[in-house]
Write a structure and sequence with these properties.
The complex is a heterodimer.
Chain A: H1 2-21, H2 28-32, H3 36-42, E1 49-50, E2 54-57, E3 68-74, E4 79-86, E5 93-98, E6 106-111, E7 117-125, E8 128-136
Parallel strand pairs in A: 1-8
Antiparallel strand pairs in A: 2-3, 3-6, 4-5, 4-7, 7-8
Chain B: H1 3-13, H2 26-34, E1 42-47, H3 65-68, H4 75-80, H5 85-92, H6 98-111, E2 116-119, H7 128-132, H8 136-145, E3 149-150, H9 160-165, E4 176-177, E5 188-193, E6 196-203, H10 208-211, E7 220-221, H11 226-238, E8 243-248, H12 252-259, E9 267-270, E10 281-283, E11 286-290, E12 297-306, E13 309-319, H13 329-339, H14 343-346, E14 349-353, H15 366-378, E15 383-388, E16 400-402, H16 403-410, E17 417-423, H17 424-439, E18 450-455, E19 458-461, E20 471-476, E21 479-480, E22 486-492, H18 504-515, E23 517-518, E24 527-528
Parallel strand pairs in B: 1-2, 2-3, 6-8, 8-9, 9-11, 14-23, 15-22, 19-24
Antiparallel strand pairs in B: 1-12, 4-7, 5-6, 10-11, 12-13, 14-16, 15-18, 17-22, 19-20, 20-21
Helix pairs in contact in B: 8-13, 15-18, 16-18
Classes of the chains: A alpha+beta, B alpha/beta.
């Protein structure tokens, strides 16, 4: 569908441009953290409030653990950044995205997952942190029907 | 809703035609079963999971009488349950067969000229001839039967190109390209029936690239796609559809959950798990049906649809008794012709069975037991695994086992056998993984097969536990499996690419030829702990 493709390209564009702009702010400690708790602590988001206004679109079961598509959007007014963490990955923080005022807080990314894990999304708005999570299952497969 | 709950609903509702007595004459039974009074202005006829069975078969269901509140000895008890199976199979004969199905379809179309015929998928796989012709024999049969629309699952195991070759409109709202998420098939069809616009939405098997090898469909992505389904329903309604029906290959549990989460579906005509709902289940304003397997049933959904939508629905699931329905001459001739090049090969007699051989069951079936024994012996393995497929026909005691029968249980495009050295810990992890895909508390995480069949070792299974805790007490020859020790494990149907082991049918055929006579087999099962989610299945 054309709108989907355009949205995706826009998101990809955002992905390409943003890290360049944000290069100076690269948080090595957060991305190098080996647990989700440590990564969140480094980001200053240790105890985010649960929110239903963060929407995570992802497969229930990954078709391919090497490329798991995750789509995140935040309906929290003033969302300025979104962080995506894969709890059981060796380096849980998979990405952090910053949004200029008025930009649509929407991002789509592919992540690699070795095993079933919760995916945690942290949205930051007005200096406050909000969280939502959902499980994505990784299975060896086979034996169907 | 869990299986037990909806089965109770079914039981309480009773069954249409349950008055069929055990000693009806053929003419009486034919009239009671098949003289379905027309109703309304829109009719959808539904077949699903025929698994390429062109000829009539025996098919033993996993349920008992108590599941459906059926009287013992009746034709419907024979169609829906395994009670007195062998005796009733002899009394009522084989079921299904496309020539008999064609007669029934024609009979219903005569009284309902507006009817559409929908095929829920798994039509091109399950027989030798379908495998050897890459589904061509079945495409011909679908065309002659007059299938208007289909959706798919095992069809995808012939590869993306083959699926795209079919002339039949294949509907699937949940299949997209992996790169730009472009639709691969039409999501739905909008048809005017008796002047009323009706939308049929297709839902392919959501877990095709997981339950079957992904390398057959590398450029396509699946999933349940609930949000997209809602958009599709709304779009169809926006374009004027007065009735919207989902032709689904989700499996019954997924269908029931899905019905509770989307708005605007009048009915879900479901398949995949091979459940034959004698009565439909109402979830909110959606009627959910599942129409069995192997050509054994034809679903008839009659609807009275007006300008403001569906006013009333009536549903009947008709068992196809081949002794009660004459073979359609045109279809019979087509089938004979389609089989002719393979007839001699198919008829090869490999062995004789003294016991009943069937596949369906949550944990094992006797034909799988046979496959397991063949794998253990021929591969000189300590342990053998066989997938919990739900297709595969039934043989009565005293029947010869032909190559065709063996292919009915094994005809897939990835038939290779494997022999691996696996540690006790790996074996437990595999069993946990499969059990989670079968018994997960969330229907959306169930893939719809049965538990993998296991030979050479025993274990304890607690279906309602969480992953990592369902499997315990793994033993080989009465001694605990060591987590670090390695065992020789045979299997077949690998989902990984590039595996070249001897096809399973060659392994089992060799075993059968050497065995000659197969004694009655006991289907070995794990020891069950806790509550079995489907207590009456066996």
């Amino acid at each position: 569908m054309k709108t989907t493709r355009r949205t995706l390209i826009a998101a990809l564009g955002a992905l390409l441009l943003k890290p360049l702009a944000a290069f100076a702010a690269w948080n090595e400690q957060a991305f190098g953290a080996k647990t989700a708790a440590d990564a969140l602590k480094t980001l200053g988001a240790s105890s985010p409030a649960a929110s239903k206004d963060i929407v995570i679109e992802a497969p229930q079961i990954a078709e391919n653990g090497a490329v798991v598509p995750i789509e995140v959007s935040s309906n929290i007014p003033g969302t300025s950044s979104i962080a995506v963490l894969i709890e059981k990955n060796p380096f849980p923080l998979a990405g952090r995205f910053e949004f200029k005022d008025g930009a649509l807080p929407y991002v789509k990314l592919n992540v690699k997952m070795g095993e079933t894990s919760d995916v945690r999304v942290i949205a930051t708005a007005g200096g406050k942190h909000f969280a939502a999570s959902r499980e994505i299952k990784v299975t060896i497969g086979g034996c169907g029907g | 809703m869990r299986r037990r709950e909806f089965l109770q609903i079914l039981g309480a509702a009773g069954v249409a035609g349950a008055s069929l007595r055990p000693n009806l004459s053929a003419a009486q039974a034919r009239a009671e079963l098949y003289d379905v009074k027309p109703f309304g202005n829109v009719t959808l006829l539904h077949i699903t999971d025929t698994h390429a069975q062109l000829l009539p078969v025996y098919f033993r269901e996993p349920f008992g009488l108590e599941n459906y509140n059926l009287k013992s000895g009746t034709p419907l008890a024979y169609a829906h349950t395994h009670a007195d199976f062998v005796a009733l199979a002899k009394r009522y004969g084989k079921v299904g067969g496309f020539a008999h199905l064609a007669t029934l379809v024609k009979r219903l179309r005569a009284s309902r000229p507006h009817a559409l015929l929908l095929d829920g998928g798994d039509s091109w796989q399950g027989s030798a001839t379908a495998l050897w012709t890459k589904g061509a024999d079945m495409m011909g049969a679908q065309e002659r039967l007059g299938v208007d629309y289909m959706t798919a699952h095992w069809e995808f195991t012939y590869g993306m190109a083959r699926v795209k070759e079919t002339k039949l409109p294949l509907l699937a709202q949940n299949v997209r390209t992996t790169d730009f998420e472009d639709p691969v098939f039409d999501a739905y069809a909008l048809r005017e029936l008796s002047g009323v616009p009706v939308a049929i939405i297709g839902q392919a098997f959501p877990y095709t690239p997981i339950a079957n090898p992904r390398y057959f469909v590398p450029e396509w992505t699946f999933g349940i796609q609930e949000a997209r389904l809602q958009v599709t329903i709304d779009e169809a309604r926006g374009k004027g559809a007065k009735a919207v029906v989902l032709l689904s290959h989700n499996g019954s549990h997924v269908d029931l959950k899905l019905a509770s989460r989307v708005r605007g579906l009048d009915a879900i005509l479901g398949g995949h798990t091979h459940d034959a709902f004698p009565r439909p289940v109402r979830v909110g304003s959606t009627l959910v049906t599942n129409a069995g397997s192997n050509g054994k049933f034809l679903g008839v959904l009659d609807m009275d649809v007006g300008t403001s939508g569906v006013k009333e629905l009536r549903y009947r699931l008709l068992p196809v008794f081949s002794n009660l329905l004459e073979a359609d001459a045109g279809m019979a001739a087509y089938i004979t012709e389609a089989r002719r090049p393979f007839q001699a090969k198919l008829g090869e007699r490999l062995a004789l069975t003294e016991g009943l051989l069937y596949r369906r069951g949550s944990f094992n079936g006797t034909f799988d037991e046979l496959i397991i024994r063949a794998l253990l012996k021929e591969k000189q393995a300590e342990i053998a695994f066989s997938p919990g497929f739900r297709w595969g026909t039934t043989l009565l005691p005293g029947e010869p086992i032909t190559l065709e029968h063996l292919m009915d249980q094994t005809a897939i495009t990835y038939p290779n056998t494997t022999l691996n050295e696996l540690s006790g810990a790996q074996i437990k992890a595999i069993l946990e993984d499969v059990a989670d895909n079968v018994f997960h508390a969330d229907p959306y995480l169930q893939q719809g097969g049965d538990m993998v069949r296991v030979g050479g070792m025993s274990y304890r299974l607690e279906p309602k536990a969480k992953i990592g805790h369902r499997i315990s007490a793994l033993e080989i020859a009465g001694k605990p499996l060591h987590s670090t020790k390695r065992y020789k494990v045979a299997g077949w149907a690998p989902v990984a690419e590039g595996i070249t082991g001897e096809p399973i049918w060659d392994v089992v055929a060799r075993y059968l030829r050497a065995t000659g006579t197969v004694p009655p087999l006991k289907a070995q099962q794990p020891r069950l702990a806790g509550t079995n989610p489907s207590p009456n299945m066996s």
